[in-house]
Write a structure and sequence with these properties.
The complex is a heterodimer. By secondary structure, chain A is mostly helical. Chain A has three helices and one strand. Chain B has six helices and one strand. The chains are: A mainly alpha, B mainly alpha.
């Protein structure tokens, strides 16, 4: 960040636990499970073109388009959460590797 | 007219006949009469039977209410996803993880929360719009039902009572026909104006739903962001 004076306290299990909790399927309250619930929209969510009458045609068409956009947005968000989990695990792995190297250097010294 | 003068035709050797020489406007008069009869008597009935029934395609308000329920549940799930992600990040004690990576992760979580909040607001607005449309169509259905029952009650009244009531009803019917023929043009104009206004309102609502409610749902949401959110797939 600024320099080496910044206290670097790394609790690797906490970092990995955060990453697993973001996408964990065992616990029902993870953000990814919320998004899975949102992404599985009720069946026949796309109303037809004439569901609001002939004059409501543009509104019905736009609604169907918005349904598709929302589904793709939820899919993107779930992929982003998985990517964030991978990033957190990568951070934890990097910290572990750095600690091992430091221990090795200390032993050599 | 034929005796007054004749316009010299350029190719006068072939024929000297000119239109309107006989001063016979009967075809045009018949055509005009047919046009007037069509506009006064035929077209209003055609409008009543074809255009009105074509434009009032029955739509089920329960369908719209069900879709609005789906959007409400969608909004709740997305809002819960953002809040849960923020709580998960905040529950990790700062004592166990102090690093630039924590700040970066917190920023990404904040961006995720902001996006999920805007998405849930858009979904709630869409659900509200759909509920408004469904309630308006429900009111229209009940109004049409009341009008039909009134007409049927009048018919029953007229058929049960004979004599003066029937004469009175015949007089009313003739008066109504007269006014219908007289005001058909203005009624048609008003009908077309109403149709134009309704189409404009529908187009405006569609534009509002497209540009005002689907900010977060656009596919460019996840592609155009540069590391701001976690949604960079």
């Amino acid at each position: 960040m600024i320099g080496d004076e910044v206290p670097r306290i790394h609790h690797l299990s906490a970092i990995r636990a955060l990453g697993d909790a973001l996408t964990g399927d065992s616990d029902g309250t993870s953000p990814a499970s919320h998004l899975y619930d949102a992404g599985s929209m009720p069946p026949n969510m796309r109303i037809g073109a004439f569901a609001m009458g002939v004059l409501g045609l543009p509104l019905a068409l736009v609604h169907d388009k918005i349904v598709g956009d929302a589904e793709s947005a939820v899919t993107y968000a779930i992929a982003g959460l998985h990517e964030h989990r991978d990033r957190l695990h990568g951070v934890a792995g990097n910290i572990e590797i750095a600690d091992k190297r430091n221990e090795e250097y200390v032993r050599r010294i | 007219m034929s005796d007054a003068f004749k316009i010299p035709a350029p190719d006068a050797s072939s024929s000297t006949w000119m239109p309107f020489d006989q001063a016979d406007l009967r075809d045009m008069q018949y055509a005009t009469l047919a046009m007037l009869a069509y506009g006064a008597a035929v077209f209003p009935q055609l409008k009543e039977t074809v255009v009105m029934t074509g434009l009032t395609v029955p739509s089920d308000p329960h369908e719209l209410h069900r879709v609005a329920d789906g959007w409400s549940s969608f909004a709740g799930s997305v809002y819960g996803a953002g809040r849960t992600a923020q709580q998960l990040h905040d529950n990790v004690s700062p004592a166990s993880w102090q690093a630039p990576e924590r700040d970066q992760s917190g920023q990404q979580m904040a961006g995720f929360v902001v996006d999920s909040d805007s998405d849930s607001e858009s979904a709630e607005g869409l659900a509200f719009l759909l509920r408004c449309v469904a309630n308006i169509s429900t009111v229209g259905i009940y109004l049409r039902f009341l009008l039909a029952s009134w007409l049927v009650a009048n018919l029953v009244w007229v058929s049960l009572l004979g004599g003066p009531a029937t004469r009175f009803y015949t007089h009313l019917q003739a008066d109504w026909l007269k006014s219908c023929i007289q005001d058909s043009t203005s009624k048609l104009q008003a009908f077309l104006m109403r149709c134009a206004v309704r189409a404009g309102v529908a187009t405006f609502a569609a534009g509002y739903a497209h540009f005002g409610l689907s900010d977060g749902f656009e596919p460019s949401w996840a592609e155009g962001r540069e590391g701001g959110t976690t949604a960079n797939a």
